[in-house]
Amino acid sequence: ETSKSLNFIEQIIEEDLENGYSKSDLRFRFPPEPNGYLHIGHASSICLNFGLGLRYQSPVNLRFDDTNPAKEEQEFVDAIKKDVSWLGFEWDTERYASDYFQQLYDWAVQLIKDGKAYVDSQTSEEMAVQKGTPTQPGTNSPFRNRSVAENLSLFEEMKSGAHKEGSHVLRAKIDMAHTNMLMRDPIMYRILHRAHHRTNTDWCIYPMYDWTHGESDYIEQVSHSLCTLEFLPHRELYDWFLDQVYDPKMLRPKQREFARRNLSHTVVSKRKLAQLVAEKVVTGWDDPRMPTISGMRRRGYTPESIRNFADTIGIAKRDNLIDVSLLEFHVREDLNRTTPRVMGVLDPLKVVITNYPEGPEEWLEAENSPEDESLGFRQVPFSRELYIEKDDFKEEANKKFFRLKLGGEVRLKNAYIIKAESCTKDTDGNIVEVQCTYDPKSKSGSANPESLRKVKGTLHWVSIPHAVPSEIRLYDRLFTHESPDTQKDKDFMDFINPNSLEVITGFVEPSLKEAKIGDRFQFQRMGYFCVDKDSTEEELVFNRTVGLRDSWAK
Ligand code: ATP
Ligand code: MG
Ligand code: MG
């Protein structure tokens, strides 16, 4: 393989392999904070880390970065595990930063003894003022030169619960004049009298992200710790913290950064998605309009389509916005290959075939997929009264209208050619019924040469006595702006699309009565649909996953 086909992270790994790493040194991790559900941005990171695991046959840990009990919950841990598995990846071991609280504490005590950490007892406001600015050095805390003994006893008291939240913090003693602001005596621990979803009330001091992340990588012997670009300035601190504990007999983890992926017409930030849930803009984290993995699963997206999307966009060194229509392209491509075709009418218009015999229905054979013969055939009932789409009939229309018009012919999919003879209107002038005749010799698939007769249009339909009324949920973009959270002087909530959900009653063919929650179909000419979890024995509920064509990019 040439280096051209390698992304820049793979190139870094290849160089490391040339310069002394062995393949068995390689180890990766995906490190979500369990403070929300995973979204499409996380899918990129999952595909990157687990993709490297597959490429180099290396273990990949699922590590929960659970250092903030104020925001983290078991519900989110469970959802994250489900989503990573559903995407099709297997982690080597399940780890928690909280597993390392004792080790981190012991190391912190060592730092205090080495004169590299101290307890600061100022308010956060006072410390913020002393931090300085990027162009001006900060000033030392009056507590910076506390004795080791005093620091040890205060830190011990913090741990044992003797102090209130906000009264003390443990800080690394680095350099208050450092050009990198993050190196100006960063906080390592704060007091939080909060129960943790795993350690319960064992701890009331919690380690900060920077102190935790690199040391966790070191404990797990992760070789390449891949994170998003906003952590680039943190790398120096990551390395400083590692320097304090590093044993040269061990592997030293490297932090490397890649660009965050943003998707158009949505937001990918757990905090903002949580706000949509809390303010009931959506029905939950798994609302089919959400860019969460669980929302996309409920919408009908397949794991393959999300993985193909992530592979296509690859990774980058600069943050960028990916158009959601690229994701939808991959969804359509996969659903086209894998879903059976069925017929459902979303906006019904009654058709009566006046020369078709009254009485028992006729069952016609219909192919389930032109893309996949193995999906076989099913039987579809035909009768004298049918629904077609309202849009598919006009009294008069020009030559480009390949659907039904008075005096014109169309083929009904899997059935007969019909001709519109007349129509009936209500008192407001709306067409409520079309009277047609059919050509009995034109039956699809019959031996009769008339069955091959070509007409311009083919319509989908359902037999009225057999039609199954169903709730159909049609979705549109959740936001009207392609980048709702980057607009000056505007809040992303200002761009909510008020019409992102339309609920209608449609009529589907009776074979769908057997459909189970999660089953996916192509409703011919109407798009891809799946059975929603709200479906009951009494009423089927379908989500439109995506239309057949891109109706947005005009
Ligand atoms: P959020 O702002 O949504 O909470 P986060 O980065 O705080 O995102 P984490 O749970 O810490 O969320 O993320 C786990 C991993 O996924 C991290 O390595 C993070 O860098 C990566 N990640 C998160 N969002 C994106 C994104 N939009 N694109 C690529 N990777 C992402
Ligand atoms: Mg994070
Ligand atoms: Mg976050």
Secondary structure layout:
Blueprint: H1 8-18, E1 28-30, H2 40-56, E2 60-64, H3 74-87, E3 94-96, H4 101-113, E4 117-120, H5 124-130, H6 148-160, E5 169-172, E6 187-191, E7 205-207, H7 209-220, E8 224-228, H8 235-245, E9 254-258, E10 261-263, H9 270-278, H10 293-299, H11 303-313, E11 320-322, H12 324-338, E12 341-342, E13 344-345, E14 348-353, E15 362-367, E16 377-382, E17 385-389, E18 393-394, E19 404-405, E20 409-412, E21 417-425, E22 431-439, E23 458-459, E24 462-463, E25 468-475, E26 501-508, E27 520-523, E28 527-531, E29 541-546
Parallel strand pairs: 1-2, 2-3, 8-9, 10-11, 12-27, 14-22, 18-19, 20-23, 25-29
Antiparallel strand pairs: 4-5, 5-6, 6-7, 13-26, 14-17, 15-16, 17-24, 20-21, 21-22, 25-26, 27-28, 28-29
Helix pairs in contact: 2-11, 7-8, 11-12
Bound molecules: adenosine-5'-triphosphate and magnesium ion (MG) (2 copies).
Residues 33, 270 line the site of one magnesium ion.
